[in-house]
Amino acid sequence: MDYRPPFRVKDLIGQLGPITPVVVDSHATVMDALDAMATHDIGSVLVVEDKQVLGIYTERDYARKGERAGRSAARTPITDVMTREVITIGPQALVAEVLALMHEKDIRHIPVVENGEVLFVISNKAILRAFAENKAFWDTTMRDFGALHRT
């Protein structure tokens, strides 16, 4: 078998096409965030103020902190329920490292940041789609994932 270099997060852009991060303003409500996620068919939005990322809000946040917790989506400020500790990675990170991080932290969305700028948000769904569309991507990432766990 020929050696293939590791797949990096930046390679996903080539595989999947441009992935623009979807953001909501820090003054938004939960309903605004849900509308943005529905409009773009995504599972998370970044919460920003003056181009600075304050947090991330996901479908999982809604399930755990939303209506079930007695909060009205139309009246609850997004900053009350967003995840403030945003885990990020750089575009040079191995996709295998992203998978390990997602597993370790029990998260499904990770912003990709370079020089303080969010390039896109990588999701487990995007990685699975890349696997389904490219067997070499799967094979190489699984090789790299195995190597991470042997060290």
Automatic annotation (TrEMBL):
<dbReference type="Pfam" id="PF00571">
    <property type="entry name" value="CBS"/>
</dbReference>
<feature type="domain" description="CBS">
    <location>
        <begin position="82"/>
        <end position="137"/>
    </location>
</feature>
<dbReference type="InterPro" id="IPR051257">
    <property type="entry name" value="Diverse_CBS-Domain"/>
</dbReference>
<keyword id="KW-0129">CBS domain</keyword>
<dbReference type="InterPro" id="IPR046342">
    <property type="entry name" value="CBS_dom_sf"/>
</dbReference>
<dbReference type="InterPro" id="IPR000644">
    <property type="entry name" value="CBS_dom"/>
</dbReference>
<feature type="domain" description="CBS">
    <location>
        <begin position="16"/>
        <end position="72"/>
    </location>
</feature>
<protein>
    <recommendedName>
        <fullName>CBS domain-containing protein</fullName>
    </recommendedName>
</protein>
<dbReference type="InterPro" id="IPR044725">
    <property type="entry name" value="CBSX3_CBS_dom"/>
</dbReference>
